[in-house]
Specification:
By secondary structure, the protein is of the alpha+beta class. It has two domains: 125 residues, Jelly Rolls; 66 residues, Winged helix-like DNA-binding domain superfamily/Winged helix DNA-binding domain (Arc Repressor Mutant, subunit A). It contains six helices and eleven strands. The strands form three sheets. A four-stranded antiparallel sheet has the order 1-8-3-6. It has a four-stranded antiparallel sheet with strand order 2-7-4-5. A hairpin with a 2-residue loop joins strand 10 and strand 11. Helix 3 crosses helix 4.
């Protein structure tokens, strides 16, 4: 994607972009699937912008069990809170596909960029609230239905793709993959949904989801 197409640069004239990128010491970093862009414990003063591909913000416990606490796709930002605060990362940033990121020094953002960043932070907080709503469900089945319902509503139709594979979805919902696969199979057998890889189609109403 073109850098100027990102919501981070909304309202900034194209003629001002080169100077702004120079001021923030912006530089492109290509990445490959499975690569760690940032590691837990590191301190960064740079926020990341995904130009292509997808990255996952992950948290691992003492035993190495992983959960996905955030996603960033094309045009979206990551590590911005840590860059602004200057605190060591409590999470890692993992490349979920091949792609490229742009890193910018947070302390040199212009007033307009800072305003855009605050808007993006508010949007990410809303997404985190939605994730917590899914995870607050009591069972794996209910978590799946809550997540898939939200994805269908976002797509505006019953048929849609999700940006996660099976293991990533399990990590995102903080459930065991085997339990999630069993729940998906049962929902399919009951005629609630159809799926193939990350392509889903909701067929009829499942349990009530508030």
């Amino acid at each position: 994607m073109e850098i100027s197409a990102s919501p981070l640069f909304r309202g900034i004239p194209a003629r001002d972009l080169p100077a702004l990128l120079d001021r923030t010491a912006a530089h492109r970093v290509p990445f490959q699937k499975g690569e760690l862009l940032l590691r837990r414990g590191e301190t960064t003063r740079r926020l990341g912008l995904v130009l292509s591909g997808t990255v996952h913000v992950i948290r691992e416990d003492f035993w190495g069990r992983r959960s996905i606490v955030g996603l960033a796709g094309e045009g979206e930002i990551f590590a911005e809170s840590y860059a602004l605060a200057g605190e060591p990362l409590e999470v890692s940033v993992l490349a979920a596909s091949d792609g490229e990121a742009l890193f910018l020094e947070a302390e040199h953002l212009s007033e307009r960029l800072s305003a855009n960043l605050m808007t993006l932070l508010a949007e990410k907080n809303l997404m985190l609230t939605e994730k917590m709503r899914h995870m607050s469900r009591r069972t794996t089945r209910e978590k799946l239905l809550s997540y898939l319902s939200a994805q269908a509503l976002r797509a505006g139709k019953a048929e849609f793709r999700i940006p996660l594979d099976r293991q990533q979805l399990a990590d995102f919902l903080a459930v065991e993959r085997s339990a999630m696969s069993a729940a998906l199979g049962k929902l399919r057998d009951e005629g609630v949904l159809e799926f193939r890889k990350n392509h889903f189609r909701l067929l009829r109403r499942g349990e009530e989801i508030d």
